[in-house]
């Protein structure tokens, strides 16, 4: 597996991985497949990944196996609620057929390297409360809930989590 910076040529595959991962965790969390299969949403994700890859404020990496993008991570600077500098882990996505192969852990390690390289003392993220797989993943990697959240789909929330830089 290779972790590398993506090019614009990778954006469609990254957006496809994001779309499949998103559909899987939302459906596992109880949302109907129809609510996760909106074609406009897939177009929006492609546009958002294009902006992220081109942005000087975002750092993006993708995981590649046999010349196929199988995962991606997006990160950048953030401001913690207490006003301290932090790095935001915006998203990690791994193609569902590749789950359990250590790809997410490698992408997370890339975020930890980013924390050190940019001298950020902490990381922040938010995760859908019904995404139990992600919650377990982040807890395993040392993240803890901050006690704050924001509204999510279908009477759920997105939980905010914090990681002190190791």
From TrEMBL:
Record-annotated N-acetyltransferase domain positions: 1-164
This protein's UniProt keywords: Acyltransferase, Transferase
Keyword Transferase (UniProt): yes
Transmembrane segments: none
Highest rank taxon of the organism: Bacteria
Keyword Acyltransferase applies: yes
Name the UniProt record assigns to this protein: N-acetyltransferase
